[in-house]
Amino acid sequence: MSDALDLAGRVLIALLFVGGAVQKVTDPAPVMQMIGTLGLPGWLIWPVALFNLVAGLCLVLGPGVRGWALVLAAYCAFTSWFHWQLRTDPWQVTIVVKNWAIAGGLLILAAQGPGRWRLFRGRGG
After folding, report:
1. CA 65 to CA 81: how far, in whole Å?
2. Pair 116, 65: CB distance under 8 Å
């Protein structure tokens, strides 16, 4: 039962990142606009989308799950600050808290490992 729960948790977390990649590719304008307001070039959306896709797939399939979980936890913590808009859009603060919660789950995954059910077994479980 534990391995099934590990896999289900990894799939649910991975859906967030894979879905984010699909969203960025199919409708890039909103994210490009947000990136632009930060003074960054809009083309950064493409490497970020690729990162989201690869990281999400690696969480499910298994190569380096612990490492990917750590990197994604840092990514969630870092990107949460883009949503800290308490005065202009208080609902964005909810996204900050959700990002922190996802980072927490990813840290647990990094500490505990992916369980036995993964396609690729290698260093970094």
Report:
1. 25
2. no
Q: What is the pTM of this model?
A: 0.86
Residue 112 belongs to what H/E stretch? helix 91-112
Contact 13, 109 (CB under 8 A): yes
Using DSSP's 3-state secondary structure scheme, residue 46 falls into: helix
* Tokens linked to 124: 């970094």
Q: Kindly report, residue by residue over 43-87, the tens digit of the pLDDT.
A: 999 999 999 999 999 999 878 999 999 999 999 999 888 777 767
CA–CA dist 96, 85 (Å, integer): 9
Using CB atoms within 10 Å of the CB of residue 119, give its burial: 0 to 12 exposed, 13 to 18 middle, 19+ buried.
exposed
Contact 125, 113 (CB under 8 A): yes
Q: Which residue has the tokens 């948790």?
A: 9
